[in-house]
Amino acid sequence: MAISDLHCVLLLDRAGISGEDGETHQGIFDVNFLSTIPNVTIFTPSNKKELEDAIETAVYKTNGIVAVRYAKGNFEDGEGFESPYKAKLLKEGSKATVVTYSKMTEIIKNTNIDADHIHLNCISHIDYDAIVKSVEKTKRLVVAEDSIKNGGVGERICAYLAQKGVLAECKIFAIDNKFVP
After folding, report:
1. Which of 17, 32, 117, 155 is the most core-located residue (most Cβ within 10 A)?
2. pLDDT tens-digit readout, 5-52
3. For helices 153-163 and 128-138, what crossing angle results, to 10°?
4. Are strands 116-119 and 40-43 parallel, antiparallel or unpaired?
5. Residue 171, SS3?
6. d(Cα 151, Cα 63) in Å, to the nearest integer?
7. Alpha helices in the chain (DSSP H)
8. Over the chain, what is the mean pLDDT?
9. Lowest-confidence range among 9-13, 123-127, 129-133?
10. Sequence-ordered list of residues with C-beta below 8 angstroms from that of 135, at least 6 positions apart, any chain
11. Closest Cα to residue 151, out of 118, 167, 117, 174?
12. DSSP summary character for residue 57
């Protein structure tokens, strides 16, 4: 399907850690394997309105394979996408740049970290410009994700910064490459 650009929408329930469902139902591997397939778009909503916008964009406004990954349980109310492919600066700070997506956005949003907090609506088309702008100011990058670290979003962002010569201290908080009970 990806090679022929056929349209297919995948709704990935239980993205990230799903709790009591056990190790066979943790949605922690999808980011890593879907990100390697050409022509796949991955939306990562963090609230109810973003989920609605992601599904509408996936069904009516995006070609090819589109995955919408969302956490188990209820979503908080919130704002929708300004643009599905642009990162959203949720908070400004000076000590670091914190990048999140999916459920991690809501977790980090409620902290008092003195940092630029950037939420990614889409992790297959990462808005590197927004991240670089912030990291050039703060000189520190923290990526918090609810998926496997190896081959994840954090590693891709750190590699991009290195390739562009953007010097920053990088820290990735993600799940080790193992099954989570």
Report:
1. 117
2. 789 999 988 776 666 666 666 667 788 888 889 889 999 998 889 999
3. 70
4. unpaired
5. strand
6. 24
7. 30-34, 48-56, 103-109, 128-138, 153-163
8. 89
9. 9-13
10. 97, 141, 161, 166, 168
11. 174
12. I
Q: What are phi and psi of 166, to 5 degrees?
A: -85, 110
What is the pLDDT averaged over residues 75-93? 88
The token duo for 123 is 């992790």
SS3 31: helix
Q: Which amino acid is at 179?
A: F
Confidence (pLDDT) at 55:
94
Tokens of 55: 């599904």
What pLDDT was estimated at residue 103? 85
pTM (predicted TM-score): 0.91
Burial per residue of 13-46, b for 16 or more beta-carbon CB atoms within 10 angstroms, e otherwise: ebbbbbeeeeeeebbbebbbebbeeeebbbbbbb
State how far the Cα of 95 lies from the Cα of 11, in Å rounded to an integer: 36
C-alpha 39/C-alpha 175 separation (Å) is 26
In the block, which residue shows the tokens 């890593």?
A: 32
107 close to 88: Cβ distance less than 8 angstroms: no
